[in-house]
Specification:
The complex is a heterodimer. Chain A is built from 5 helices and no strands. Chain A is mostly helical. In chain B, the strands form 3 sheets. Chain B has a 5-stranded mixed beta sheet with strand order 2-1-5-3-4. The N and C termini of chain B lie far apart (59 Å). In chain B, 34% of the residues are buried. The chains are: A mainly alpha, B alpha+beta.
């Protein structure tokens, strides 16, 4: 992929992170929004609220998208840091391939966990 | 007539001759410095009094040609444009521009910079080269369109920005602020139609993507050009182009020269030097 596309995705991932971290703050940390975003009442960490989020397809997809955006954003930054060490063309290609493989592997594992959450919640009687 | 206020200053000059010296070394020379003396004048004095083999590049002596860029007291500057007294120190440390191979002493090898510059087509790319060789009229451009690229056209290609750029220091692939700002200068020109050609280079690793906006290029530019701004505008243009948001426009058309309005105070234009 050409550098222009990589950089554009980096920007897009940053925007996604910004929106979803805002959502995280609303759901988990802001006192005046916690009652609205946690229908079971109490704290966001309470079991009933955790299970409610686990059962939600919206949250499962949100977790997967946030994970993808964070991984891409972070690994693109790591790539830039590594490239500042002035590697040769062969090592650059290896770094690119290595980061894609590790990133996709982590995304696959994390997305599987996020998307399986509704089924797990149902199995646990949530 | 009172004696001019002459001070003794010490020039610490980095000397290096590839093939002869193993590594660069510092040499120190004491010279008299009257008010108004520039670093370039000082180098000539050093050459006259102490070091006849000292090498550097210079030409116009008035900040226009860009030849005498060097590292003066830790900052890339033009030697002809820097007065010794302005530096506020009795010691003037002078080295070649960083981020370039040294040819000898204070002479950097600027060839890679100009090669990259050439790859980015730093000229008006149009489909009417005949009009440029043999103009029949003028390319229409409004003052507002002129403003979009004017400040970038003040670049004298001295290489100060390249020497100050931390990304150029760590990435041999990155084109650097001078070629990129000059590519943007032409991309911003309403008479130009070369965006697609430059995009072939700029969308890849040589483009603006590794710039992390340290801003040193703009800080050191002796002509007040803002290459950092050009690079950010270039990123915006290229991303908008990728997302199909960029407004595509045809290069300015040729219009007839104004006629029928006589301005008695304006002398006649000189004879044409191009074409018929």
């Amino acid at each position: 992929m050409r550098d222009r596309s990589l950089w554009t995705w980096h920007l897009a991932a940053g925007l996604v992170i910004l929106v979803f971290l805002g959502l995280h703050m609303v759901i988990m940390h802001l006192e005046w929004t916690i009652p609205v975003s946690n229908p079971a009442g109490g704290e966001p960490e309470d079991w009933a609220n955790v299970v409610w989020r686990m059962r939600s397809i919206f949250f499962a997809v949100t977790y997967a998208v946030l994970l993808g955006a964070a991984l891409y954003h972070g690994f693109y930054g790591l790539r830039n840091v590594l490239f500042e060490l002035n590697p040769g063309p062969g090592l650059r290609a290896t770094i690119n391939a290595g980061l894609w493989i590790v990133g996709l592997g982590l995304f696959g594992f994390g997305a599987y966990v996020a998307l399986m959450a509704p089924r797990v919640a149902a199995a646990m009687g949530g | 007539m009172p004696e001019p206020d002459v001070k003794q200053v010490r020039f610490r000059v980095r000397r290096f001759e590839p093939g002869k010296d193993v590594a660069p070394r510092w040499e120190e020379y004491a010279i008299p410095a009257p008010p108004g003396m520039t670093v370039l004048d000082g180098l000539w004095k050093v050459k006259e009094l102490h070091a006849p083999t000292l090498a550097w590049r210079s030409s116009c002596r008035m900040g226009i040609c860009g030849s005498c860029a060097m590292l003066i007291n830790g900052r890339a500057r033009l030697a002809c444009n820097t007065q010794i007294r302005e530096l506020g120190s009795d010691v003037v440390a002078i080295g070649p521009l960083p981020n370039f191979r040294i040819i000898k002493d204070l002479v950097p090898d600027l060839f890679p910079m100009f090669e990259t510059h050439r790859d980015l087509s730093p000229y008006l790319v149009r489909e009417d080269p005949q009009e440029q060789d043999d103009p029949t009229g003028e390319y229409w451009q409004t003052p507002h369109e002129l403003e979009r690229y004017l400040q970038f056209s003040y670049c004298i290609k001295c290489g100060c920005c390249m020497a100050a750029c931390p990304t150029v220091a760590t990435d041999p692939v990155y084109a650097g602020p001078m070629p990129l700002s000059q590519a943007q200068r032409y991309n911003n020109d309403s008479r130009d139609g070369g965006f697609a050609r430059r995009r072939e280079v700029l969308a890849g690793g040589r483009g603006p993507w590794r710039c992390h906006f340290a801003g040193e290029c703009s800080r050191v530019c002796p002509k007040g050009v803002d290459p950092a701004k050009a690079i950010q505008l270039m990123k915006q243009d290229l991303v908008f182009d990728l997302l199909r948001f960029r407004v595509r426009r045809a290069p300015a058309k040729v219009v007839d020269k104004p006629s029928g309005t006589k301005r008695p105070d304006v002398p006649a234009a000189p004879p044409r030097t191009a074409g018929r």
